[in-house]
Batch of 2 targets.
Target 1
Amino acid sequence: MAAEPRRKIVAGNWKMNKTVTEALALVRELRGMVSMLRDKVEIVVAPPFVSLYPVAKAIEDSNLKLAGQNCHWEASGAFTGEVSAAMLKEAGCTYVILGHSERRQLFGETDETVNKRAQAALKAGLVPILCVGETLAEREAGRTLEVVERQVKGALAGFGAGEVASFVLAYEPVWAIGTGRTATTAQAQEVHAALRAQLARLYDGGTAGQVRIQYGGSVKPDNAAELLGQRDVDGALVGGASLKAGDFAAIVKAGA
Ligand code: PGA
């Protein structure tokens, strides 16, 4: 039996932007703009924690899904400022973004803590969106593949093929995030293909063929179609351009 084609997944990472009121206004606008796409492409928004539950209510019966931007690995307890995977799940999340480069660079996230968070996410019924990516210095030193493969291996430690098949990876070169500097389609495709080959080595070809790999880093309406047209690019993780309904909807449409 031929494997099902991978459905594209476009996610908006809002980072620390939008109050609850602003978040609701944005999803209400977006909802109408993408409703005609139905399930041609999976559409995800990741607002800050405080907006998750109200946004979940505002996107009921729509084709939008919800993601958290992080979760802690413990189920509950004395961890001031943290949020558990089960809390995200109950608030309405399907996905959780883990290991974003801002978490790694600004908040001490490591491959090991990303792995612990991914385990907690899966246990709570959330699908992890695992972010990997090299810095400019690492790319210039010719270490891109070594770095992203180390990050993937670390994040996936201990998971079986059946679990990993549903995961989403996001390749986000750090030098392309929020800089307006996008990877070329060839650069993106090269890394995506290498990651898929790594998944085939770690698991098997069938699993590697199911995992969706998003590209992230200055994705905009005018470069989305070309990036999403690459063989191993299965979607986009969008920061800045996800804060404007029209821009995000245009990127989503490029994936449909
Ligand atoms: P950007 O962010 O689209 O603003 O470059 C992408 C991301 O950090 O996920």
Note: Residues 192 and 232 are 6 Å apart (CA to CA).
Target 2
Amino acid sequence: MTARRLLLVNGPNLNMLGTRQPEIYGSTTLAQIEQRVAELAAESGFEVRAVQSNHEGALVDAIQAARQDCVGIIINPAAYSHTSVAIRDALSAAELPVVEVHLSNIHTREAFRHHSYVSAVAEVVIAGAGPAGYEYAVRYLAERKS
Ligand code: DQA
């Protein structure tokens, strides 16, 4: 099935955006990010399914489901970026273009954030652009030749 739908996945603690360490993550809420992504995607004829979970298995389930009815995945795996082989394997199995987004530049932060298990299975990695990173991700997937 080739529905023009994107999966937007946000991992643990990103439900706290807006109040969580605003000096690092800014003051934009997750609801505002999800709304902006949906609006921008709609301009290019895409629907968006937005999922946020603090639970690794729920994120794996959402990624597995995307294989059925999505054409691309935008994911901020948050702390699971640095720990989760399960999320990486789910993304590989989905066989969809993946854009990995981080609000902060993980490479200028603590050493344990410098490695992401997800990056090797992402077509594009965007880090440090704040909420605009999600917009760049939508633009990339909308303009990508499938
Ligand atoms: C993050 C960076 C991660 O290291 C961190 O665990 C997060 C958010 C980001 O968007 O900058 O929760 O993915």
Note: The mean pLDDT is 96.
